[in-house]
Amino acid sequence: MPPTTPLLKLELVSKQFSSAEGAPPLVVLRNITLEIARGESVAIVGPSGCGKSTLLNLLGTLDRPDAGKIWLDGQDLAQFDDRKLAAVRNRQIGFVFQAHHLLPHCTVWENVLVPTLALGDKKLRATAPERVTRLLKRVGLGERLHHRPGQLSGGERQRAAVVRALINQPQLLLADEPTGALDGAAAAELAKLLVELNREEGVTLVVVTHALDLARQMGRVVELKEGRIC
């Protein structure tokens, strides 16, 4: 595939949800057309309820649009069944949420290794333990490998979650309010880390955020209002 092909392409994508009985459906996204280049960093901003998280869920194949098309790496996602989409999520997409979702009884090192267990690529699976250790050291958690999440600060837990999202070497990293639960210093540190990893790992980064400081550090800002791109 030519390198100029965008990693993500959306064409006239719409999404609605059922309302209370007798009420018309709630239209959340309206005719979204958007392209995101390989290696790009993009912030999606807008007021609460404008469709930011819904859009991120569609990009991450966690949901399907009601109308329009989405392509990931040139693949028409509408052609994939649920099993194929699950494989795409595991191999091509990494997720970071406001809540870290680390397993409380596993160490940091074990938490990061978990997504590699489903890899079909034996070579990647064999090199995963070394990559886990290297990336955790890269984000400042080299002394925390064998700690459990409850022994970490909020910022440390979120850094571990970022490493877990990157461990399968995805093409796309999606982050939904990744700094929302952090204090100012930890949020600034995580924002800096995301920008650096976007460059170092060559991963395309899409961040949904209310934090303008984080949004300004992305290469491009996309604003949503009432389900449309402004």
Describe this structure in words.
The protein has 230 residues and is an alpha/beta fold. It has a single domain (39-56, 82-229), classed as P-loop containing nucleotide triphosphate hydrolases (Rossmann fold, 3-Layer(aba) Sandwich), CATH 3.40.50. The protein contains seven helices and ten strands. The chain has helices at residues 52-59, 82-92, 108-113, 122-138, 154-166, 184-201, 212-216; strands at 8-17, 26-36, 41-45, 67-72, 75-76, 93-96, 172-176, 204-208, 220-225, 228-229. The strands form two sheets. A six-stranded mixed sheet has the order 6-7-8-3-9-10, with helices on both faces. A four-stranded antiparallel sheet has the order 2-1-4-5, with helices on one face. A hairpin with a 2-residue loop joins strand 4 and strand 5. Helix 5 (154-166) packs parallel to helix 6 (184-201). The longest helix has 18 residues, at 184-201. The protein is globular. The mean pLDDT is 92.
